[in-house]
């Protein structure tokens, strides 16, 4: 059933060079909404970060979920993307939904770089979200300008994600949660074993079929 806190999410900004919300984005937001309905509203997260925000659909959903669960004054969402057009599009999506800069900040940059100061100031990230470029492509396509950066994942579709994974544990606050979209070709079981070896409990919390792909949301929890 759709989350009533997201009933007003109808004004997603678009740009030809920016990934529009698709099945993977919806699967991630469904998992996020379940998380708010279970543990997050009690935990009252201080810092939520979405890497690779694209249209801003996921980050804006998180800000609206925080507000809907009474955490509007407590939770800051930070969104970022390497694509400058995505940063502008995310800002337009936030404005269209009445989400101001106290509730959600958007910045341009690679992976966790734009969030380093906030991570330090807040003692880590409570919720980290990433729907990465996960499609298997030639390595030369990774990191190209514009819309190509939305999907090109290189070898195993993991070249961008594999640069983030070693930093996740330290970036999370005690009890922090990482939600990440994966497809079968990314070798989810191998990634979960890596995360477990780093001390993060890992599980697939939702999955669906979209066109030719099997999509998963992986959840990793840092112990308190
Ligand atoms: C599959 S799209 C997801 C967009 C949006 N989060 C959603 O779920 O609809 C991946 C996004 O990651 C961004 N991206 C790619 N490489 C990145 C990097 N190194 N750092 C930050 N963002 C990156 C892309 O520009 C793109 O917007």
From TrEMBL:
InterPro entries assigned to the protein according to its UniProt record, in alphabetical order: Euk-Arch_PrmC-MTase, PrmC-related, SAM-dependent_MTases_sf, Small_mtfrase_dom
Annotated signal sequence range: none
GO biological process: methylation
GO terms for MF: protein methyltransferase activity; S-adenosylmethionine-dependent methyltransferase activity
Main location per the UniProt record: nucleus
Location(s), subcellular: Nucleus
Gene3D superfamilies in the record: Vaccinia Virus protein VP39 (3.40.50.150)
GO terms under cellular component: eRF1 methyltransferase complex; nucleus
Keywords, ordered alphabetically: Methyltransferase, Nucleus, S-adenosyl-L-methionine, Transferase
Domain (Methyltransferase small): residue spans on this chain: 29-137
Family: Belongs to the eukaryotic/archaeal PrmC-related family.
Protein's name in the database: Eukaryotic/archaeal PrmC-related
């Amino acid at each position: 059933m759709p989350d009533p806190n997201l009933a007003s999410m109808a004004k997603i900004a678009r740009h030809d060079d920016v990934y529009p919300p698709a099945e993977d984005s919806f699967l991630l937001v469904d998992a996020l909404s379940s998380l708010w309905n279970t543990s997050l509203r009690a935990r009252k997260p201080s810092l939520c970060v979405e890497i690779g925000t694209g249209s801003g659909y996921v980050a804006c959903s998180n800000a609206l979920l925080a507000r809907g669960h009474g955490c509007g004054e407590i939770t800051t969402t930070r969104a970022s993307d390497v694509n400058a057009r995505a940063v502008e599009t995310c800002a337009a999506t936030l404005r269209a939904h009445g989400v101001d800069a106290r509730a959600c900040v958007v910045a341009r940059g690679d992976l966790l770089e734009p969030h380093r100061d906030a991570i330090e100031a807040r003692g880590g990230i409570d919720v980290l979200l990433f729907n990465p470029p996960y499609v298997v492509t030639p390595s030369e396509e990774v990191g190209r300008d514009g819309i190509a950066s939305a999907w090109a994942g290189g070898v195993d579709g993991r070249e961008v994600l594999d640069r983030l994974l070693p930093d996740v544990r330290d970036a999370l606050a005690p009890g922090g949660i990482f939600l990440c979209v994966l497809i079968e070709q990314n070798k989810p079981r191998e990634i979960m074993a890596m995360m477990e070896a780093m001390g993060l409990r890992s599980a697939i919390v939702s999955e669906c079929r979209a066109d030719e792909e099997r999509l998963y949301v992986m959840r990793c929890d840092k112990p308190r």
